[in-house]
């Protein structure tokens, strides 16, 4: 469903949250433009720098860092890139791009994050056209399709995966998945990092009802 104001957006979110508790309705929503975090790439820090130290340093510099994680370089390549999400504020852009020192280390470079172009896929439910941040659908493991995080998947790695979307013997983010391919042709597709594995055709997995708005 579409809404025309920030107030309506928040009212609908509250209403859907109540339905989730009382009737088990699954839903997701999109961030309001003013609430979207600024995504940046940080270069020049040692590979073993703790993310929590970077968050604190960014906050000390006047930028409300919310999340930081390292992006390891490919084998054989030096260095490390850090991905960060910073709360949007009046001074965030272009101010954060002027930061050249963090944790007493000069030569730091902060630039706009450039995500890989492709199909937007939620890392929580494995469905498409939204992210995990405002997803209230049942969790689905990207490896086995069961309702738990991928980090807690009990399935041995030597066993084949099961796609949460089509039931095939591949991970849910496999670009060979028939559901993935179908959604790729959707003009509303967004951005996500993707991986590949060998596909096997199986009956499609049943999906719960879904309510979404933007």
Automatic annotation (TrEMBL):
PANTHER family the UniProt entry points to: DOMAIN-CONTAINING PROTEIN, PUTATIVE-RELATED, ENDONUCLEASE_EXONUCLEASE_PHOSPHATASE DOMAIN-CONTAINING PROTEIN
Protein name listed in UniProt: SFRICE_030768
Organism: Spodoptera frugiperda
């Amino acid at each position: 469903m579409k809404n025309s104001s920030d107030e309506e957006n928040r009212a609908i979110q509250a209403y859907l949250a109540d339905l989730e508790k009382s009737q088990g309705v699954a839903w997701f929503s999109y961030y309001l433009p003013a609430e979207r975090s600024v995504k940046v790439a940080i270069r020049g820090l040692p590979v073993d720098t703790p993310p929590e130290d970077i968050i604190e340093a960014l906050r000390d510099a006047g930028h409300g860092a919310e999340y930081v994680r390292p992006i390891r370089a490919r084998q054989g390549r030096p260095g490390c890139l850090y991905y960060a999400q910073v709360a949007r504020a009046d001074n965030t852009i272009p101010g954060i791009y002027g930061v050249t020192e963090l944790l007493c280390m000069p030569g730091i470079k902060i630039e706009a994050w450039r995500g890989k172009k492709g199909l937007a896929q939620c890392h929580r439910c494995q469905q498409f056209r939204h992210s995990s941040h405002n997803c209230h659908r049942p969790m689905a493991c990207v490896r086995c399709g069961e309702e738990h995080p991928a980090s807690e998947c009990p399935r041995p790695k030597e066993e084949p995966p099961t796609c949460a979307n089509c039931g095939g013997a591949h991970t849910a983010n496999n670009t060979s998945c028939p559901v993935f391919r179908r959604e790729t042709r959707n003009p509303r597709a967004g951005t996500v990092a993707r991986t590949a594995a060998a596909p096997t055709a199986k009956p499609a997995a049943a999906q719960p009802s879904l309510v979404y708005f933007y």
